[in-house]
Amino acid sequence: MRRSYTDAINALNSLQSNFATIEAIRKSGINKNAMAMPEMLEWTRRIGYKSSDFNKLNIIHVTGTKGKGSTCAFTQSILGQYQPKIQKIGLYTSPHLKSVRERIRINGQPIAEDLFTKYFFEVWDRLSSTNSNETEFPHMGSDIKPMYFKYLTLLSFHVFLNEGVDTAIYEVGVGGEYDSTNLIEKPTATGVSALGIDHTFMLGNTLGEIAWNKGGIFKTGAKAFTVKQEPEGMKVLEERAQEKGVELKVIDESDVKGLELGIPGSFQAQNASLAVSLANEHLTKLGIQIDSEKTREGLKKTFWPGRCQIIKEDKITWFIDGAHTKESIDASSGWFKTATDPTKKRVLLFNQQTRDANALVTRLFDGVSPLKFDEVIFTTNKTWSTGYSKDLVSMNTSKEAVDSLEVQRLLADEWVKLDSDSVINIFHDIEESVEYVRSLDGDVDVFVCGSLHLVGGFLVVLDGDKE
């Protein structure tokens, strides 16, 4: 196997669950969760580690339905103000926007291509040269690799340990109890951002079931923090904390009142408050004195692309947010409504390929009301007219649905019912959509929303990073 960065990305992409596999699991109702942690521990053993090895990373573990990525970004930025007392801060988040390397950051920067490639193939070779007990793990031969997210989780631990990281922040992928990041035995603190209904076929259909999963990251000896939740979710989180002998603290937003936040949106105060509590607990555990000025500076300097981000380009102002759940669409459309210039032409650029797209777009329409969009564009998440950027290849959506523009046509039909006055366009890819917007006359405010995959591809196109 050749060993360039492109080869690493191609090998990684081969580990994605394809659309057919995901649909089969969804329809079968088979719960593969029971083996999730034993398998993850076994993969860890095969790359030369025990889960206790990760304790030296001093990990803050964060879950939630919305706001968990922003919470991690705020936390990292606050702790970054304490360097050199903290030497190297690792940050593991998902999904990525433009490059997969964004998922594994050190001191705020995605790891370099050469480092990613080096460590990627070290993990690959260790897995290829080891075996598992055939009776216990019959499906884990040396020719089998963990799936995409699990592989990246293993890679992140390997990178952080080898690069001398002494504080790490881990964002859960999905849920908590059975998530591959839940190898973490002794976090310094755990956090749960706002809960909502998402990933139901993996986590359950009720807030209680989802809260049970999220509470799986609570660990004895580490304080847990959460924001105010709906009663059903809060009750279960409290039960989980009690079951694990963990102190659960519900935080309010008083400690960030009046402070400037680097990520816009009124709802970010909740995430920032959670981050302050997590950072303070972490610093206390490390024996570092808390400095409120450093907290203030960290919150102000936080940058998290694709979340309530504004980019000005000639006569166009792009308002970009990766909201993709009902709750986050509410927050995001509220942000756009207050941030847009009501005198300008307004355009919506939207996609959501897998979730209930029609419900989300209806929610968005209601959220910006009484403002209207003059034009609405529905696109796929394909980056360029020639296909996907290599870091954005997605095998877990139906190729047929993408090629036939099935979802986009259904969205257009839905929008006509909401507002028949809007000019509606359907485009095959993001590049074509952006070119169309750039061809419009006059000053334009464009709301790019519905999916982090759309936002990532959009940012690649805006940068003109064509391979």
UniProtKB/TrEMBL annotation:
Gene3D superfamilies: Mur ligase, C-terminal domain (3.90.190.20), Mur-like, catalytic domain (3.40.1190.10). Pathway: Cofactor biosynthesis; tetrahydrofolylpolyglutamate biosynthesis. Its cofactor is a monovalent cation. GO terms for molecular function: ATP binding; metal ion binding; tetrahydrofolylpolyglutamate synthase activity. Mg(2+) binds at residues 94, 171, 199. Its EC number is 6.3.2.17. SUPFAM superfamilies: MurD-like peptide ligases, catalytic domain (SSF53623), MurD-like peptide ligases, peptide-binding domain (SSF53244). ATP binds at residues 307, 321. One of its GO terms (biological process) is one-carbon metabolic process. A monovalent cation. It is an enzyme of class 6 (ligase). PROSITE patterns: FOLYLPOLYGLU_SYNT_1 (PS01011), FOLYLPOLYGLU_SYNT_2 (PS01012). It is found in: Cytoplasm; Mitochondrion inner membrane; Mitochondrion matrix. It catalyses: (6S)-5,6,7,8-tetrahydrofolyl-(gamma-L-Glu)(n) + L-glutamate + ATP = (6S)-5,6,7,8-tetrahydrofolyl-(gamma-L-Glu)(n+1) + ADP + phosphate + H(+). One of its GO terms (cellular component) is cytosol. Keywords: ATP-binding, Cytoplasm, Ligase, Magnesium, Membrane, Metal-binding, Mitochondrion, Mitochondrion inner membrane, Nucleotide-binding, One-carbon metabolism. Coiled coil: none annotated. Belongs to the folylpolyglutamate synthase family. NCBIfam families: folC. Catalyzes conversion of folates to polyglutamate derivatives allowing concentration of folate compounds in the cell and the intracellular retention of these cofactors, which are important substrates for most of the folate-dependent enzymes that are involved in one-carbon transfer reactions involved in purine, pyrimidine and amino acid synthesis. Required for methionine synthesis and maintenance of intact mitochondrial DNA. Involved in telomere maintenance. This is Folylpolyglutamate synthase. It comes from Wickerhamomyces anomalus (strain ATCC 58044 / CBS 1984 / NCYC 433 / NRRL Y-366-8) (Yeast).
